[in-house]
Structures are given as C-alpha cells and as structure tokens.
Amino acid sequence: MTEVNTIHGSPGQKPAHKGRPVYLDYQATTPLDPRVLEAMMPFYTEKFGNPHSRDHFFGWEAEEAVEKARGQIAALIGAGEKEIIFTSGATESNNLAIKGVARLHAHHNGSPKTHIVTCATEHKCVLEASAALERDGIAITYLPVGPNGLIDLDQLRDAITDNTSLVSIMGVNNEIGVIQPLAEIGALCREAGVFFHTDAAQAYGKIGLDVDAMSIDLMSISGHKVYGPMGIGALFVRRRPRVRLETLIDGGGQEQGLRSGTLPTPLCVGLGEASAIAATDMDEETTRLKGLKDLFLNNILTRLEGVAINGDLEARIPGNLSLSFSDIQAEDLTAGLKDLAISTGAACSSATVGPSHVLEALGLSEELSAATIRIGLGRFTNEDDIKFATETITAEVERLRRVNPRQTSAA
C-alpha cells in the first residue's frame, strides 16, 4: 500500500481498487456502468437475433430492443427516433457527417459548394477527415481559438461564404474540457443557411444538449465516453430541414441507407441504457464532479506554485482539468505516478510525436505543452481518490523539481 503525507498531515493510503491504479482518465474512456452491462447481457445469450431478420420472433425481439435504444438516445438530445443513425463510434460519425455533407454538396450539379469551416482544436478524426477533403479539392477554413480555447463568433461569421456547405465545431474539447457556445454557433449557421455539425463525444450525457434549441443539424455520439460499451456510436441527422449525405459504406442499406451493416444489438442496447441513465443522473453527477474538481484544484494550488489551468475556467465540464506544471516534464511526472492513471494528452494522439495541437492553438509554448497533464474525473471517482491523487501528484512534482531544478519561466 503506497503511503504519502496528506494535506492535513495524517498518513494517506491509496484507495482500494483491487491493486490497480486510481483511474483519472475519463476523457480517454469511461468504465462500463454495471447497469448498462446488465441491460446488454441478455442480448449476448438468449436474445441473440439479428435485428434485420423480419420473418421470426428472434429478429423482431432484437429489432424492438434496437428501436428502444434509438429512442433513448434521441430523448437525451431532443431529437426524433428516425434521426438517430447507429455507427461504430464518434470517429465514423464524424467522417460520415463531414465527408457526407461536403462531398454531396461538392457534386451537386445545380450549385456546388466546395468549402467547410472547422476549428484548429478539433479531435484528430475531424482534422484528418478535413485534410482528406482538402486533397479532393474542398477548401477548409480552420478557425483559431483564443487563449481560453473558445472560438470567436465574429471570426466564424466572417469565415462563412456563399460557397460554404458545413460548419463543424466540437461541443466539448477532449483535452481541455472547454464548452463551445453551441446555441450561438447554431443560430449563426441557420441564419447563413449552412449545416452545423458538432462532435459531441465529450459533451453527450455530460451537458444539456437540445438539437432544436441549438440549431444543430448533425451530432456525433460515442458510447464509451458515456459509460456505455466501446464499438458503438450514433449520428444525429436532422430531417427537417433535411440533411442529405453521401454514404461511406455500401451494403444492405441498413440505417435508412446511410450506414450499411448488421447492427450489434447488445451494443445498441448498451448505448441506449447509458443514455437513459445520463438523462436521469446528469444534474446530480455534474454537481458532484464540480465539488471533486474544486477539491482537487484547492489541494494542488495550496501546495504547489507554478501551476496553470488551461482553458476557460467557467465554460468547461467539471470532470476535466488540463494543468501545466513549470520546471518539469509531464512524461517524467506520469512515469513516476504508478498508482495513478492520468494522461499527458488525448489518447487519439498518443502515437503522434510532438506537442499537442490543442495546447499549441491556445498559445502555450512547447516547453509548457510538454509540462501538461490531463485529469479526467468521472462517475466512479470519489473523494478518497481525489485526496490520494493530489497528495501523490504534489509529492512527485516536488521531487522532480528537486532532482532536476531548471530555470524556466513560471506557468
């Protein structure tokens, strides 16, 4: 059992997690909620039918479960059931939305539109999808963000032209947790007559989302970010005014012809159940996580100097903190924290060598980017976890600064 000095001077011990590290990386993935697993299990065993089998009970039973899940997802964002298209996850949803709209409008015989607008701090799959479109001749405008991580609405307005078909801005950033002004962006896009897509993988189930109130036309959803299973996601596709897409996958024409392939009934059920739980528990969970985040920050800032918080302090989800520590390397810090599971950035970019594109867009120096960690709090984080984490991080930062003192600018 690891022991460190607590903030109040009494010995602290690692919380009991069956010998595993304390998990604080909820932006990378979330554990499956046991209630979700319970709902899924029958569809791996006795309720194993193909939801597209229309001729017998087993198919009808599976189809009914899939449609129930579709309704649970729709209810959480104020959508219609027929507007929910199941996918393998947010990466596929983002690709279908962005490439689907851009290519269809670029190939339109009457009035082709060959321009889309996105943001410099988007998830890698959005940036790579945009880069693929650029190679096909689609013009892309990458909006900058301010030091707080938020876009400037006037810059967005100026970026939209008569040739623009789509604006794609993520709801909550996966590295720094900031919430973009979705309702204002949606209103601006609706006024300009362009479609608005948002990558809501980190927002869905964590903040209130209403596709009508926010004028959102396409929304990408991920199961494993909301305590559901990996390998399942969804794309909201507005029907009125109707959004038309060029499909990515050819096959049997499932999901209204937008996404062919046999639906994985247990995974669909899991995403539906996770959505229903989020609808019930979101407000209480938000309040609890805010308390844990404030406890974490108070403990860290009381003990350490040279700590900077990246991203807007108000417009952010309570379960995320991006912290830069002067005079250390984040990789050295995480290597020394064997009893904590935290990250130096986005899991999707772990194979990329170089500074975070998100932190770079905020204006952080390469040195401070390399001194940044991400703390992700979630449904199963408790106060003991927070106390242990802050004590452990504080001790390791102090040790690293003693071992390798460097003269750098303060964070």
What does this structure look like?
Helix 2 packs parallel to helix 7. With 411 residues, this protein is an alpha/beta fold. Strand 1 and strand 2 form a beta hairpin. The chain has a 7-stranded mixed β-sheet with strand order 4-10-9-8-7-5-6, sandwiched between helices. The N terminus and C terminus are likely disordered. It has 11 helices and 14 strands. The longest helix has 39 residues.
Examine the secondary-structure arrangement and name the CATH architecture of the largest domain: 3-Layer(aba) Sandwich
Mean pLDDT: 93
**Alpha-carbon distance between the termini?**
33 Å
The gross shape turns out to be: globular
CATH names the topology of the largest domain as Aspartate Aminotransferase, domain 2
| SSE run | EEEHHEHEHEHEHEEEHEEHEHHEH
Number of domains: 2
Radius of gyration: 22 Å
Overall number of strands: 14
**What is the assembly state of the chains in this entry?**
single chain
Helix content: 25-40%
Q: Determine the CATH superfamily of the largest domain.
A: Type I PLP-dependent aspartate aminotransferase-like (Major domain)
Largest sheet: 7 strands, mixed
**Structural class, from secondary structure content?**
alpha/beta
The level 1 CATH classification of the largest domain is: Alpha Beta
* Proportion of residues in β-strands: 5-15%
